[in-house]
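User: Sequence recovery, please. Input:
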């Protein structure tokens, strides 16, 4: 349980976080956002991590000196994720990373960016409303309804469960999924 844990302590313990909104410093340049993500690192390590993160997100090299406010939603999301990766987190928590993005940018964020991070070995906790898309990437899935976990299983089992469509479309009840009467 990390409730009430100071953010710097969470960061030092290996947790990275990208909130749904306000996930970048829009009035700063890309490189400044990355430096902010590495504020707990010594200068040499911070510079090395900037280069490593840019390798993960090559388009950021071309945009390195751009103000983030001038970038598209998808580009800003890339900056936000890159910033969160600066301290080399063991677990990256992404809260609705596709919120407000077009279907094409949603595909890029989920399939290319998040998928590539997972392939590199970063553990990702993804909170996402676009469940079917997210489940294609996931190993495990936890379905929450009104703050309660009603199903925990492999992503493929959740995806194949016909009761899940009912829950996601609002027609099902928690008791139908959890087995409660």
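Assistant: Recovered sequence (181 residues):
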């Amino acid at each position: 349980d990390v409730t009430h844990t100071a953010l710097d302590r969470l960061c030092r313990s290996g947790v990275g976080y990208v909130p749904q909104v306000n996930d970048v410093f829009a009035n700063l340049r890309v490189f400044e956002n990355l430096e902010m993500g590495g504020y707990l690192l010594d200068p040499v390590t911070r510079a090395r991590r900037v280069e490593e993160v840019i390798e993960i997100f090559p388009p950021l090299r071309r945009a390195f000196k751009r103000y983030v406010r001038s970038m598209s939603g998808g580009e800003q999301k890339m900056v936000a994720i890159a910033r969160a990766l600066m301290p080399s987190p063991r677990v990256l928590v992404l809260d609705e990373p596709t919120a407000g993005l077009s279907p094409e940018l949603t595909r890029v964020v989920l399939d290319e960016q998040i998928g590539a991070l997972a392939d590199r070995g970063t553990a990702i906790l993804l909170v996402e409303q676009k469940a079917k898309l997210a489940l294609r990437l996931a190993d495990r899935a936890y379905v929450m309804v009104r703050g309660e976990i009603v199903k925990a299983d492999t992503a493929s089992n959740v995806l194949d469960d016909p009761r899940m469509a009912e829950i996601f479309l609002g027609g099902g009840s928690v008791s139908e999924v959890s087995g409660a009467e």
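The chain is about 50% helix and 15% strand.
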